[in-house]
Write a structure and sequence with these properties.
Strand content: 35-45%
CATH superfamily of one domain: Alpha/Beta hydrolase fold, catalytic domain
Number of strands: 35
CATH topology of one domain: Rossmann fold
CATH architecture of one domain: 3-Layer(aba) Sandwich
CATH class of one domain: Alpha Beta
Structural class: alpha+beta
Distance between the termini: 25 Å
């Protein structure tokens, strides 16, 4: 392993490998390869192909080729792109050894597509242009994180024939929105979801469209649906989501996502309702590439899907008549990020805490796993990457909390080191076997990094995840008890040099923590919420997410009817308790936690006389740390490192320790 310090600029060395798509007739797989181009301040994405019997090679040159798919016979491949610096989303197709040609473009985006035979595709597109002088908005949300203003977008579900004109199949009404869709194996039906109530965008109708008869009917109403697809039975589809009545009681953001089947007559069966874990891939990573694959695939009567369990993402399979899902532990010791089920092999991308995702294949008949790509070998060999150690904490109420520590580069047990508590977002996500460049930069520069899955995290039971109406209560205790246990277990941590940081929910908790304790000598809050009152009406999910977070129910009263509770749960209203130096990092186009959250907190702390700085990133959104432009991502990490260096200090040996 290299002893070279992992500097912020080294973020550009990583190769992003994602979105495997297996050929339906041969043992070979498409995937997306991405690299940062710092000079042009963009990502270059191209489509590559790999197989067990030959080295991987590129099929397209990019620079913005993503979302690859094979036609049903595997003869043609397709992908999304923006060629020649086009502002429009484009759909391209090509033979494996031929030139690519464009079959469709959409000025407001391609939201998804699927093949319908080898000569036709079904494509969900957006059309329209924003107003040049004024934005006249009639519906919620005002904006969407990562997309900006979307009030002008009109969706169309279209049939696109290679060499022919598109035919509109479904066109939602004003204020309605198609979420996901899929084509049946025989090409006869399209299942899709439709949001009709702008005040409850978490609720969908499930529709079946008959391609031959040109008829559309509602099969189910009032479901929380994330994704849809088909079993290998043309008369039976599947969807992942939540029963509304159950989700309303347990919490829309708390209830686990389940796997259901739905027949053409609308009858629904839950396949995983007795399964204790979430049907999701929720491990945190800041080293992911773009993904378009479905979370569930059906093959020979078996359902395969992601599931998050105690810091790892497994691939699970559910066979007909079985008592429950079987986790495929044999695929490796990391987290599965994407997968595609082939005729003879399972192809997947996998990462762990010290290695970015690469492509693997697994042969169930021989029980042999093979790694197909080594794109990050140059990166992992040239910079220091830490290893983490897992430990468990028995919380004060008896619950067991998973936690990890990454020791600093050049660790010497006889010395004292500063440590950073890093809090994940969500809150229903998790830390564990996900590659986090932030952790490695901090550890490489002399800091121990402590991270955990407190109450509210994914990877456990619904009861464990249930902190609705209680943000800053049991989760706060868990985090502080993790820190206290780390100080006992690792006496080389300097208790006088502790820092805390996190993003989104982790940013909220950073704000909350510094209003409750003086334990930390420096803090960095990222894309955070500081005031639930203003968050309610300024963000793309605020009017339903915030009532559940603060009052415990998506249908709870708004702030103007219950201001005291919203204030009680807002760090802004406890700002008089803050003494910790704070760096606030926020993006100017963050519509998930609007920039006003950062400005309000900064203003209050500045007027109070606290050592506080505000770093605002133009042109970036809530996903700055994960998919922001390369220069902004590098600058963000530099700012975090500089802030902790300034306030936690470095030892005489220059690597963060004190003898």
């Amino acid at each position: 392993m290299s002893e070279k310090t992992f500097e912020p600029k080294d973020l550009a060395r990583i190769t992003l490998v994602s979105d495997p798509r297996v050929n339906p007739s041969e043992c070979k797989v498409l995937y997306v390869l991405g690299r940062m181009d710092v000079d042009k301040n963009r990502y270059n994405y191209s489509i590559w192909i790999a197989s067990p019997d030959r080295p991987p090679y590129p099929l397209t040159k990019g620079p913005s080729d993503t979302c690859p798919k094979w036609s049903p016979t595997g003869r043609i491949l397709s992908f999304l792109s923006r060629r020649d610096d086009s502002k429009k989303s484009e759909l391209w197709v090509k033979l494996e050894d031929g030139e690519a040609w464009k079959v469709l473009e959409a000025e407001a985006g391609v939201y998804g597509y699927e093949w319908l035979g080898d000569e036709e595709l079904v494509v969900l597109t957006g059309h329209g242009k924003p107003g040049e002088t004024v934005h006249r908005i009639k519906h919620l949300p005002v904006w969407v994180n990562g997309s900006g203003y979307t009030y002008f977008v009109k969706q169309k579900l279209q049939l696109v024939r290679l060499g022919g004109e598109p035919e509109v199949l479904v066109e939602p009404g004003e204020g309605e929105w198609i979420g996901d869709f899929a084509v049946s194996p025989d090409g006869r039906y399209i299942i899709y979801t439709l949001v009709k109530d702008e005040f409850k965008p978490y609720l969908s109708e499930i529709h079946f469209y008959d391609v031959i008869e040109k008829t559309d009917r509602v099969a189910a109403e009032n479901w929380v649906v994330w994704s849809v697809g088909w079993t290998d039975d043309p008369g039976k589809a599947w969807f992942t989501g939540k029963n509304w009545l159950e989700a309303r009681d347990k919490g829309v953001s708390i209830a686990h996502t389940r796997l259901y089947t739905i027949n053409l007559d609308g009858s629904i069966e839950c396949l995983t309702c007795s399964y204790p874990y979430n049907i999701s891939a929720s491990v945190n990573s800041d080293g992911r590439g773009p993904r378009c694959g479905k979370p569930v695939e059906w093959s020979r009567g078996i359902a395969y899907f992601h599931t998050s369990v105690k810091g790892r993402v497994f691939l699970a399979k559910l066979e007909p008549g079985s008592a429950g899902p079987l986790l495929l532990y044999e695929l490796g010791d990391g987290s599965i990020d994407g997968f595609s089920i082939g005729r003879d092999c399972i192809y997947y991308t996998m990462m762990n805490h010290r290695e970015p995702a690469e492509v693997y294949c697994y042969d169930p008949k021989t029980d042999v796993r093979k790694r197909l790509t080594w794109h990050n070998l140059g990166f992992t060999n040239k910079v220091w990457l830490g290893s983490h150690e897992h430990f468990t904490v028995k919380a004060s109420d008896g619950e067991s909390i998973d936690a990890w520590i990454m020791k600093p580069r050049g660790f010497d047990e006889s010395k004292k080191y500063p440590a950073i508590l890093y809090i994940h977002g969500g809150p229903k996500t998790m830390f564990g076997e996900g590659f986090m460049m932030d952790f490695h930069v901090l550890a490489s520069n002399g800091y121990a990094v402590i991270y955990s899955n407190p109450r509210g995290s994914d990877g456990y039971t619904e009861d464990f995840a249930d902190i609705k109406g209680g943000y800053g209560e049991r989760d706060y205790l868990d985090l502080m008890e993790v820190v206290e246990e780390a100080l006992k277990k690792y006496p080389w941590i300097d208790p006088e040099r502790l820092g805390v940081t996190g993003g989104s929910y982790g940013g909220f908790m950073t704000n909350w923590i510094i209003t409750r304790t003086k334990r930390f000598k420096a803090a960095v809050t990222q894309r955070s919420c500081s005031d639930w009152i203003s968050d309610y009406g300024t963000t793309d999910i605020g009017w339903y997410f915030t009532p559940e977070a603060v009052l415990g129910n998506v249908e709870a009263p708004p702030p103007w009817l219950a201001p005291e509770k919203y204030m009680e749960k807002s760090p802004l209203w406890a700002v008089e308790n803050v003494e910790t130096p704070l760096l606030i990092i926020h993006s100017l186009e963050d519509y998930r936690c609007y920039v006003g959250q950062a400005v309000e907190f900064f203003t209050a702390l500045k007027l109070k006389g606290i050592d506080v700085e505000l770093a605002l990133f133009p042109g970036e959104n809530h996903d700055l740390s994960r998919s922001g432009k390369p220069k902004a991502r590098i600058e963000r990490v530099k700012l975090i490192l500089e802030w902790f260096n300034k306030h936690l200090g470095k030892g005489e040996d220059g690597n963060g320790s004190r003898s």
